Amino acid sequence: VQLQASGGGLVPPGDSLRLSCALSGVNLDYYAIAWFRQAPGKERDWVSCINSAENTHYSDSVKGRFTNSRDNARNTVYLQMNSLKPEDTAVYYCSAIILSRRYWGKGTQVTVSS
After folding, report:
1. How far is CA 107 from CA 40, 76, 104, in A?
2. CA-CA distance, 32 to 109, in Å (whole number)?
3. Residue 10: count of CB within 10 angstroms of its CB
4. Phi, psi of 21 (to 5 degrees)
5. Per-residue 3-state assignment (H helix, E strand, C coil) for the chain
6. pLDDT digit string (tens) for 30-61?
7. Are 68 and 77 in contact (CB under 8 A)?
8. pLDDT for 81
9. What percent of the chain has pLDDT above 70?
10. Which residues in the chain come in under a pLDDT of 70?
11. Which pLDDT belongs to residue 79?
């Protein structure tokens, strides 16, 4: 099982980015995918998740600005991030629990700065 996050970059405040998390080795249909982020010098924090029924949940810090979606045919989950703020700057990771084991993808850097 592998997860690979991509789509990060450097954007000015107020701009948007769409992150992708590609899952390989298992069929995405049956699993929830969570997003976490880790800012420099801080702990890794949970950001959002989407389950197999496409129910989504968000942390208070991103609610109303970030949106999860999934494309099971592509085995990929997306995190649309709008109205980005400097405090959103972090390495973003996607993660899944499969057969009682948590898997992490390699993170993607998001930097929000003017």
Report:
1. 13, 15, 8
2. 22
3. 12
4. -130, 110
5. CEEEEECCEEECCCCCEEEEEEEECCCHHHCCEEEEEECCCCCEEEEEEECCCCCEEECCCCCCCEEEEEEHHHCEEEEEECCCCHHHCEEEEEEEEECCEEEECECEEEEECC
6. 999 999 999 999 999 999 999 999 999 999 99
7. yes
8. 98
9. 100
10. none
11. 98
**Are residues 9 and 111 in contact, defined by beta-carbon separation less than 8 angstroms?**
yes
Beta bridge partners, 101, equal 98
Give, rounded to a whole angstrom, the gap between the first and last alpha carbons of the chain. 37
55: buried, middle or exposed (CB in 10 Å: 19+, 13-18, 0-12)?
Answer: exposed
The pLDDT assigned to 77 comes to 97
Residue 73's φ and ψ, nearest 5 degrees, are -65, -30
Q: Nearest-CA neighbor of 40 among 91, 85, 3?
A: 91
Distance between CA atoms of 111 and 15, rounded to whole angstroms?
11
Sheet holding 2-6, edge to edge: 2-6, 17-24, 76-81, 66-71
Q: Cβ distance 81 to 65 under 8 Å?
A: yes
